[in-house]
Amino acid sequence: MYKYKMLSCALLLAAGLIAGTTVSAQTTMQPAGSSASGDTYPTAPRDPALKPVFEQFGSKPGLVALMNDFMDNLMADPVTRPFFQNADREHIKAELVDQFCVILDGPCTYTGKDMASVHRGMNVDRADFNALVEDLQKAMNKHDIPFRAQNKLLAKLAPMNRQIITKP
Amino acid sequence: MHKFRGKKMLLVGALALAGGLVSLQAAAADGGDPADNVSGKLLLTGGVSQIEGSAGGGLTPWALIGSYGTQGQFGANAFYTRVNVQDYHLDDAGAMFGIDNRVEFSVAQQRFDTEDVGAALGLGRGFSFRQNVIGVKVRLFGDAVLDQDSWMPQVSVGAQYKSNNQGAILHAIGAKSDHGTDYYISTTKLFLSQSLLLDATVRFTKANQIGILGFGGDKHNSYQAEFEGSIAYLLSRNWAIGAEYRQKPNNLGIAKEDDWYDAFVAWAPTKHVSLTLAYANLGNIVIKDNQHGLYASVQVGF
Ligand code: HEM
């Protein structure tokens, strides 16, 4: 009897958490006029719920400073360096600032390319993707961005793996 | 005497937990070093080694494939776990390897020491049961970490074959076999926006006290579905706290068996090392009720 009480408690807890998350995902993932489908997916949509996170990132100047360290980390990391060493890194940083700024509901517009076409042909695999995420985590730690705020941004970036990872 | 030791263990557990949480403040500021990038998974997303050697929490397997190898990679790790309750202790060591983020193989050996209870039961002081476990796990679908735009969890199935070295004693206490296989299905999801990881596992088993007391019994001798669950809250890249629950069957007439619980703190200073400290409540074990104490585990890997 007791056992089943515990079981149903645990299930309820799990169900509640899952339901809570999907509801919030549904309400926040409705992009305003963006085509969030398949290959033409330009970037993650603006999420008004993340406005406070934008402030935790230090608004736009914070993002600019963050991207400098992020790119330094990418160049110091033997996994990611080969991808970036011949690229226009100043341009990528500027696009990343706009991209993150939009996702976090900042006053910016993303004018860069869509994620699928920009990363096509690069042969990015999961290990490369995870390495880049870690380099970003390290940069965010260096800028004292709270861990929970970091994860809110990463939760928006993680699904982009489907456009970016092209090597099985 | 037992009461006193129990209190002492509890205190040690609480202090260790508190110590862990305090030193967290210091570690939260760490920058990590680029050399961590040798293998492809994110920190703490491989889980630790659960008591039967599979990747998971301390008590229950997760759908995650163990080790930090990811797609197209191979990773391995080894663990040692010690569980100390008032009247018994368990030493547990093993290894696992994960291939291509798809399949995980594991081996573990558990040594359960009956301390003074062994003498009381006429088996001899420090009489111990040894059990070997061979595990395999396959990820069916889903990605617990990357699929952050859907609620779809990562789902894996697994099996743990166990064989116990004390067949004669096990038969004498009413167990039907000295070996058996558990089958499980695990669903795990990281809710990154909430920094929360949830796991729900259903295990089909005949094992008495995870197999330490054999398989099947005079009361039941068929497979039963048991629920196991974990919840973990990520505090930083390197620290997580959480709790677990493991439902257990009750097959033996001579000794009732209780569900297990724990509350843990896990620390992964780098990808190559993790330490887990838990306070575990194991309930009744044979003639001793209310067994609880410290669970400590170290895992090293590449
Ligand atoms: C969620 C993860 C990622 C995001 C949000 C992201 C975002 C971006 C953005 C906004 C640009 C600039 C687009 C433009 O020029 O219009 C870009 C370019 C680029 N990305 Fe990514 N990226 C991600 C993952 C990766 C990974 C894993 C790699 C390789 C390891 C990578 C390699 C590159 C390279 C080399 C360029 C420059 C391409 C060029 O100049 O033609 N990216 N990325």
Q: What would you say this structure looks like, in words?
A:
The complex is a heterodimer of chains A (168) and B (302). Chain A has 168 residues and is mostly helical. Chain A has 2 domains: 1-30; 37-164, Globins (Globin-like, Orthogonal Bundle). In chain A, 64% of the residues lie in helices and 0% in strands. With 302 residues, chain B is mainly β. Helix content of chain B is 13%, strand content 47%. A 12-stranded antiparallel β-barrel of chain B has the order 3-4-5-6-7-8-9-10-11-12-13-14. Chain B has a two-stranded antiparallel ribbon with strand order 1-2. In chain B, strand 13 (273-285) and strand 14 (288-301) form a beta hairpin. The radius of gyration of chain B is 19 Å and the shape is globular. The model of chain B is unreliable at 1-39 (pLDDT under 50). The A-B interface holds A 3, 6-7, 10-11, 13-14, 17-18, 21-22, 24-25, 29, 73, 76-79, 125-127, 130-131, 133-135, 137-138, 141-142, 147-148, 151-152, 154-156, 158-159, 161, 168 and B 28-32, 34, 36-37, 39-43, 70-73, 101, 145-151, 189, 191-196, 198, 200, 227, 229, 231, 234-237, 245, 247, 259. The complex binds protoporphyrin IX containing FE. Residues 80, 83-84, 87-88, 91-92, 95-96, 99, 112-113, 118-119, 122, 124, 128-129, 132, 157, 160, 164 of chain A line the site of protoporphyrin IX containing FE.
